[in-house]
Design brief:
Layout (H helix, E strand, L loop, with lengths): L1 H67 L1 H23 L10 H12 L5 H11 L6
Helix pairs in contact: 2-3
């Protein structure tokens, strides 16, 4: 009976030692996690500052361009609106484009489908055919 108790005591002490090792490793891991967490927070705050700086510069640049050259901004906005409209027409005409294609590429599909003629009546007729319309 004493032998069994001694073996049990040895096993118990071995398990207790292993538990102590696990606790020490756990505490070390927690300390490391806290250090890394603080470093990540510092990096996150730095990135937020950089993003705000870029946003401020962008706003300042747009303000400067708009104030200096309104004709240029009008041209850019009109081109953008035209691209969006042509992209929508390409979708309505079911012109195929790869998934994830941007509006500019879709507007090119529409322009290519209309052809190179500069005769308004022919372009209108082609557009109506693309949109499956008899007359509008």
């Amino acid at each position: 009976m004493k032998v069994i108790h001694k073996e049990a005591d040895v096993k118990l002490k071995d398990v207790e030692a292993k538990c102590k090792d696990v606790e020490v490793k756990h505490e070390a891991g927690k300390r490391l996690w806290e250090v890394e967490k603080k470093a990540w927070e510092v990096e996150r705050l730095s990135m937020i500052d950089q993003i705000e700086e870029v946003e401020d510069m962008t706003i300042a640049t747009v303000g400067w361009v708009c104030g200096v050259d309104t004709k240029l901004i009008d041209c850019i906005l009109l081109r953008h609106l035209l691209d969006l409209t042509q992209a929508k027409l390409a979708k309505l005409a079911q012109l195929t484009a790869p998934p994830g294609t941007n509006c500019a590429t879709q507007s090119i599909l529409w322009r290519d489908a209309l052809g190179t003629t500069h005769i308004f009546a022919k372009r209108l007729q082609t557009a109506q055919k693309l949109l499956n319309r008899a007359d509008t």
